[in-house]
Specification:
Layout (H helix, E strand, L loop, with lengths): L2 H23 L5 H16 L6 H17 L10 H16 L10 E5 L5 H8 L3 E6 L2 H11 L6 E5 L5 H4 L5 E7 L8 H10 L1 E11 L7 H15 L3 H11 L7 H8 L9 H10 L2 E6 L6 E7 L18 H4 L1
Parallel strand pairs: 1-2, 1-4, 2-3, 4-5
Antiparallel strand pairs: 5-7, 6-7
Helix pairs in contact: 1-3, 4-5
Length: about 325
């Protein structure tokens, strides 16, 4: 076993032990004290730039386990409906940019997972560079892109280190779907992906929206996440299967909801302000939903206007299937 794997296991054991001690204190504490403890832990885990090191490591390991155990499921590369529609989803629903625009463009998939979005970008004819913190995820993406005659590059790194692994590289499109809200340092990762966009290029973000889950609801979900951490694997599987109503296709997405401790939520106004501070204009929500589907253009948007499609009306792709 590699040293980093031993360190990772040791860190997870310390985290589990700490959470068990916390749970052991709860029966002896009053309701107000319990709520205060959970609120404090929630704040420490979700701090924008100083998330607990153990929480960041736990989140990384949670996704490593996810891509090992739940490689198949709804909206993944294994889903025939999703794979058949992913290029259309990217072009018409998510980005709302004509499919012809993508051909030959240099695209960075920042946080590629198992390659479900990279497949669609490749089908649209883009040259695709993928980055992910998880080595297995990058290898799965490499296999998924093998049939496509495009330029491809693969890197294993956290988004906080993007400029280190890709110095001075700029892209026509940086695609970052469902990643930034899990990063140890949101601000640093946000700046890294922002700086990777060319002038007159596109940045696309999917982020968890505060409107979907207000703080009090988010705190209740966080309590379930804490309980999830101290379960053995068989208990976790039973827990997820019950939440899924017995539908094994939903296990991946539910593991994504309960396993990683770092799950931040944002308001659109704050993200728009941050994007404008990085030189982006024409910042819009392409899909009108309580979650945040955001397209932004760096610098002048005039050259891209001819490629823009009208907004897609509901039901959206994730509501149809």
């Amino acid at each position: 076993m590699r040293l980093r794997d031993l360190l990772s296991r040791s860190a997870k054991q310390r985290l589990k032990a700490g959470l068990r001690r916390l749970r052991g204190l709860l029966p002896w504490a009053g309701r107000e004290e319990v709520e205060a403890l959970y609120r404090l832990l929630h704040r420490m885990v979700h701090d924008r730039d100083q998330a607990l090191d153990l929480a960041a490591l736990q989140t990384k390991d949670a996704f490593a386990r996810e891509w090992d155990e739940f490689r198949e499921g709804l909206y993944l590369a294994s889903d025939p409906w999703f794979k058949a529609n992913v290029a259309r989803i990217i072009s018409e629903e998510e980005l709302q940019i004509r499919p012809e625009w993508f051909k030959g463009k240099d695209v960075l998939d920042a946080g590629c997972g198992n390659g479900r979005w990279a497949i669609g970008l490749a089908e649209l004819g883009s040259n695709v560079t993928v980055v992910d913190i998880n080595e297995n995820a990058v290898e799965e993406t490499r296999k998924a892109l093998a049939p496509y005659p495009i330029q491809k590059e693969f890197y294993v790194a956290p988004l906080e280190d993007l400029s280190r692994v890709l110095p001075d590289r700029r892209y026509d499109l940086v695609w970052c779907w469902g990643v930034l809200h899990h990063c140890r340092s949101f601000t640093r990762s946000f700046r890294e992906v922002s700086h990777a966009v060319k002038d007159m290029g596109l940045l696309y973000l999917y982020l968890y929206g505060r409107e979907t889950r207000p703080l009090e609801d988010d705190l209740e979900l966080f309590k379930e996440r804490v309980r999830f951490q101290v379960m053995v694997w068989e208990e976790r599987e039973r827990f997820l299967l019950k939440k899924a109503g017995g539908d094994v296709r939903r296990l991946h997405n539910l593991h994504d909801l309960y396993a990683p401790l770092i799950n931040r939520r944002f308001d659109f106004a704050e993200i728009r302000t941050l994007l404008e501070g990085e030189g982006f204009g024409d910042v819009i929500r392409t899909i009108l939903h309580t979650e945040l589907f955001i397209r932004a253009i760096k610098g002048s948007s005039e050259a891209l206007q001819a490629w823009v499609l009208p907004p897609k009306q509901p039901p959206f792709w994730f509501e149809q299937h």
